[in-house]
Amino acid sequence: FTEYPVNIERNPEYSGNGGDVTSNEYVTQAIKVRMADLESPIDVADAVGINRVVMNRYMRNQREWPIRVLDKIAPALRWRDGLDIFIAANSEEKDSEATFIKA
């Protein structure tokens, strides 16, 4: 999973790169989708012992997601490991690309 831009100008949530979405942003989006899908809200930072300020920076794409952090938060979000998060992020990317192509 490499860091390459994808031109999706229609999604204002991704504003950091002028419409170019990075794989890091897809990881964040996959995590947000999973958090929204869980039956009960979870404070991932508290659940896995990550500083809330640091977690907030990851969630706002101000810091890149290291695999060790993804491996740490994955079980709290009902994934096996960071690789499952990357797979979900890849799915988010494909869904966004399909939406962009249809529009």
Report on the biggest sheet.
2 strands, antiparallel
Q: What would you report as the Rg, rounded to the nearest angstrom? A: 14 Å
N-to-C series of helices and strands: EEHHHHH
Helix content: 40-55%
Name the overall outline.
globular
Distance between the termini: 26 Å
Beta strands, count? 2
Unreliable sequence segments: 1-15
- Which structural class best describes the helix and strand composition? mainly alpha
Strand order of the largest sheet: 1-2
Strand content: under 5%
The assembly state of the depicted protein chains is single chain
Integer average pLDDT? 80
Give the number of helices. 5
Question: What does this protein structure show overall?
Answer:
This protein is mainly alpha-helical. It has helices spanning 23-37, 44-48, 52-59, 67-73, 82-102; strands spanning 6-7, 20-21. Helix 1 (23-37) packs across helix 5 (82-102). The longest helix is centred in the C-terminal third of the chain and has 21 residues, at 82-102. The chain is globular and about 35 Å long. It starts with 5 loop residues before the first strand and ends with a helix.
